[in-house]
Amino acid sequence: MTTRSAWWQRLPLFMNDKPKSPWGNGGGGAGDDGPRNPWAVPPGGKPRGAKPSALDEFLRRARGPGGPGSGGGGFPSLPSGAGGRSIWLIGGGLIVLVWLALTSVHVIAPQQRGVVTYFGSYAYTLDSGMHFTWPAPVATVTKIDVQEIRTEDFPDGGTAPNLMLTGDQNIVDLAYAVRWDIVDPQNYLYQIKDPRGTVRATAESAMRSVIATVNMNQAITGGRVEIEQRAQTLMQQILDEYRSGVRVQSVAINRADPPTSVIDDFKLVSAAQQKAQSDQNVARTYQQQVTARAQAEAQQFDLYYTQYKLAPEVTRRRMYYETMESVLAKNNKTVVDTGVVPYLPLRGRPGVPAPAAPPAPALVGGQ
């Protein structure tokens, strides 16, 4: 409460002493019914029991709640005293409990890992399950899905051309996909700024490096598996050097074609190469057959030579007979040794006429 000066307290008395005041004569008697100065003090020295003015009401509300009869418009006031302090304590306790439940209790899913930091500095990694940490902002938990397989397509969308230079100075349009996941959440979050961009840049660099060491035929036809394995190995080596926390699952080539502008001519060249390869295969097959036959004859001759060394005369005669037999097998001749008259069943052989029947014997003496 503000204390007034002495002359301010006397000011209403001076105003009442003026006989011709527009507010009345200021007599203050009982029979005085005229208008009275509102600033004047009644004769008893006590203020009248009039209603408070608008200024007094405004000052009362500005001083705050707590006084008697403080109801009215404006914002609702909170209770004061011991009951008010209890309500404030209960509300503050509820806020603290909610804050602790939201920032101290962490549920990590089976496919996730939680990276804990204290004031932004790495502390440890949480496995799956329910865990408790210091509340924020002391501790912060970042959840990372370590089982999700992420796929990057090159080129992005798979339709635009992606030209690369081969080792024989040809150009190939290559489309491929890289599948990767996270094995180290700490390195994944804090060792590289843009993990996805780093993986894409590493894959592009590794694939171009491998394609530069093979020719066009290997890139388009039979060398895809080797190229994929080499690119995956090179990618993993680069990402491990960066300590990226990323593991490359696979690299798959989806398209390997010549550029669109020369694809028709390339098809003609490819057809000619395939025909040449087919002719070479036919010639190689004939070579193998002739070689096998010659080797068989050589082995047969070796067997004859072994037997010839054991019995030269007998082997020589047998070889002679076998040779003559193979030569005369289709001739209508029979060769026999001298001094031998064997029975030769010549009847019925082609080219040999049937023998004539023998004449009947003559009768002697007319019989």
Descriptive labels:
9 helices, four-stranded antiparallel beta sheet, 9 strands, alpha+beta, 367 residues, three-stranded antiparallel beta sheet, disordered N terminus
Can you describe what's shown?
There is one protein chain. The chain has 367 residues and is α+β, with helices and mostly antiparallel strands. Helix content is 43%, strand content 16%. The chain has helices at residues 6-17, 54-63, 81-104, 185-190, 195-211, 216-220, 224-242, 263-310, 312-327, and strands at 105-108, 112-118, 121-126, 129-132, 139-145, 150-154, 163-165, 171-182, 246-257. Strands 6, 7, 8 and 9 form a four-stranded antiparallel sheet that branches. A hairpin with a 5-residue loop joins β7 and β8. α5 (195-211) crosses α7. The N and C termini lie far apart (198 Å). Residues 1-8, 26-31, 67-76 and 363-367 have low confidence and may be disordered.
Number of strands: 9
Count the DSSP helices: 9
- Oligomeric category: single chain
Give the overall average pLDDT.
78
Shape: elongated
Helix share bin: 40-55%
Query: Biggest sheet, open or closed, and with what strands and sense?
Result: 4 strands, antiparallel
Content of β-strand:
15-25%
Low-confidence parts: 1-8, 26-31, 67-76, 363-367
Overall structural class, as computed from helix and strand content, comes to alpha+beta
Terminal residue distance: 198 Å
* Gyration radius over CA: 60 Å
